[in-house]
Amino acid sequence: MQANLTLRGWLLAEVPESKTQARCQRLFISWLEFKGNPVAVVGLLIIASLVAIAVLAPWITASDALEPDLAGRLQPPGSEHWFGTDELGRDIRDRIIWGSRITLYIVGLVSVIVVPIGLMIGIVAGYMGGWIDTVLMRLTDIFLAFPRLILAMALVAALGPGLENAVLAIALTTWSPFARIARAEALTLRNSDFILAARMQGVSTAGILTRHVAPLCMSSVIVRLTLDMAGIILTAAGLGFLGLGAQPPTPEWGAMISLGRQYLIDQWWVPTMPGIAILVVSLGFNLLGDGLRDVFDPKSGG
Amino acid sequence: MGLALPSKLVKVSGVIASLILTFIGLTAITFTIGRVMPADPVLAIVGDRASQEVYDQVFLQLGLDQPIYVQYLKYLGQLLQGDLGTSIMTAQPVAEDILRFFPATLELATVATLLGIFVGIPMGVLAAVNQGRWPDHVVRIIGLIGYSAPIFWLGMIALLIFYANLGWVAGPGRLDVYYDSIVDPVTGILILDAALAGEWDIFHNAIAHLILPASILGTFALAYIARMTRSFMLDQLSQEYILTARVKGVPEWQVIWGHAFRNVLVQLITIIGLTYASLLEGSVLTETIFSWPGIGLYITNSLFNNDMNAVLGGTIVVGVCFVGINMLSDLLYKLVDPRVR
After folding, report:
1. Which one, out of A111, A150, B97, B114, has a CA that is 20 to 30 A from the CA of B129?
2. ipTM field
3. A294 to chain B: which residues are within 8 Å by CB?
4. Correct CATH for A32-64+89-300 of 1.10.3720.10, 3.50.30.20, 1.10.150.120, 2.60.40.420
């Protein structure tokens, strides 16, 4: 009983006394494992800073990053403008800071669309089996086989350029791996004892899927989502660069590189700075995803 | 072996069936984008000042009065005959345009994949053999950066450094202007054509233009191949037959390359196929940066001229190559690896 007096002792107790304690223990042990992986912690720090910067944007910027200042255009990086100014005299640092909100908006929106769709298709296919499984998985395979960027380009071309349409196009080409993962999890769960017990107690199929199967798929879905984030960010930036994503004057990083492209030779900082921002953030998601995978799913590491 | 044949056949036919299904899915999507999504395909052709009669005539010509599945089947029939429609921008059949632009992409993607294979595999083996030591960390960091960097940005920075500042390589495009249209396009692959014609100046110039975009595009291939090689090698090196070989006194290089790597090679087939397919697609952004006249540049230019036939034709061709290569590598893997049989 001595050990139970400290928080650490409570978290590491051999036998948990309540559901809450068991849950907290699992999280804590995962965290200890995660903390032992310095690379993953760096990833977490990068993503946490991204979120902090996006939230604090109004207080840490000096301008709204949209208003041109033609007298101060194309100034090199210095103490006044850390990352220099662009072709309209806007502070590049401020634009990158405001742009972090757009990056988070994109990845957030894509996740909100993609995870429920993939999860639903996957667990229904895996749990029901039979012809439902065959049909849904064929559909998933078809989407899995598509070239992502080109299909997104064609879709945006038809729907018209813009941030929301770019998000929609990315989502349509991103959901399929989640269906695959959720199906695999559902397949292993469908005949387990606790599911049988729930079924015998008269829980409906929908109830079993949403309350028992779906929550257990979440950890692998989250790992995969984190690893996919970098790809989503790069595709969105690519679409923005091609002029198919966010439109100027929105400070989306890909679009900023596209506008700054003609100043590359003489004013290198204009396209370079937003590129570094994209690199750092997508690196952060990759590092974090790697770390999460090692913690949650040590077998498939690589 | 007589018994192995039927199961092989089953596998092959399974792969072909899923290839056909995927093709139907792909064309259904391009059909939807092309026919249903733009507000009015007739107006797009006749313009908004045409009379009602002309409008009706084109409406019937396009077969828009027929049920949607008939329209789709007709569209599929045209595709299978190689008819991708006419490009508004070049006023030529899209299929002919694509045949002209495709070899440039093929050249770029092939050289990039080769770079990825010949640099990425040794890097992966090196990392696995030195697991946890500095060569391993270096390879992992290079791999992560290759994964994370936006390729169009990387291309721009590389042009700035290696072309504008150092002058080591030639600039955007496939050739210097004064070498243009000297060699007959036999294969369309410029370095092959120049070599066949014995025009070595042009050959060198083509290489100078090719090396930078191929390296940039190859960064992703390299990162992916090195990472997978490392993880496959680690897998093999922890097996018992490796221990047996070491105990027997087999020299270490023989253990690594002769024993472990031979088993890894089979697994790498799929990875290399995946990489090649994704590079065919990924070349879109690289081609834009390097003004490389391939299919990616063709699709992007068509996009900005609202040339939907060309965009969708390009999408289908790239999509079919992508799907085809993936399935082929899958099939090859199933046929080569005795454990999968």
Report:
1. B114
2. 0.84
3. none
4. 1.10.3720.10
